[in-house]
């Protein structure tokens, strides 16, 4: 088990570390790199996985619903805590709700559980992204329009992939293979960009960051664990949901806070310390996930 955990985590942190090392001595245009990833490579991967009829989406309906519950439930659980501690809701709550299911989650889940986990990893990633760019943006600015959401490439790719899967429209194997190859670029690129981006944040508000590093995985697991018991998830989906619940805050929270001018340095501290905290949280979570995955059903 220790070998499996190390084999899963070491590539993740080595690729992110390579990004940090490169960003330390160079000044890559990481914003353009992230734009290319989010507008081309990630949508292609999402479309290819969803459009593939060998991955029937009906099998992932309970998992998608559980992911929605984890994201929104974390906010419900921590809202009174944030109010009691006098924290800014718009600054503290989104990083607790919207986790690193893209940069860390997808590659981590694939490395941990194999390629058969990719559809489940993409499903929870899509759920988190859609909620982030709907509920999350509404939390920051109630005047955010639905049209802004529908224009996003990842949303368009998700809807198109769902339509192809449900309709049963056959796509040529060569087309799916090309999309999978291009989409596969996004996974290491996400991790590399994560390493570069983390160089931009600091420890200026380490107390809030430390609190977030503790509460983010705790709140996610507090929702995920009962759902694993109550919902008809297979062992692989249960393991994916467990890891999803324990993921640290998404780097995207920092970018969004910067865009909306909502204490970006404070959000940066939450994101950085939360991701550093995952060095302790994720090995324990993966150990529990491997036990669950191989336990007699």
UniProtKB/TrEMBL annotation:
GO cellular component: membrane
Species of origin: Vreelandella subterranea
PANTHER family: AUXIN EFFLUX CARRIER FAMILY PROTEIN, SLR1864 PROTEIN
Name under which the protein is recorded: Permease
InterPro entries on file: Mem_transp_PIN-like
Pfam family name, one: Mem_trans
Membrane topology: Multi-pass membrane protein
Keyword Endoplasmic reticulum carried by entry: no
